[in-house]
Model the fold of this input.
Amino acid sequence: MNEDKLPPPKDRVLKMPRQNSVFLAGRLVRNVESAFSPDGALVVTFPMASNETYRVKSGEVKQTTLFVRVRAVGKVAEYVESHFRKADPVLVMGKLMNDERAFRGMSEPAQIVVVQATTVQPLDQETTL
Done:
């Protein structure tokens, strides 16, 4: 029998991981916005920018910037609110989540993806992002 047509052994079958983890390094684009959830927990949101520099085949250096909305709740939100301001470099660890947002001119809320931060820590000002 031809071995190329046999299914892989069960011990070598890759399974879909159940992991939703995000690690982003960047800078706050604006100051933190604060609000309270219906149950009274502090919720902060802030946009952050993360830059990537790369070289194309011609040797030219290019840069792209990714803008991401980050949300933190509870103790993490309290820390972010008291320690970070616009342009501060941060490392955000968390997970991706859907969020419904109402935008002007749209009849129904839109689904957007946000990073739900579990940890936000400062990066050295000298770090190149």
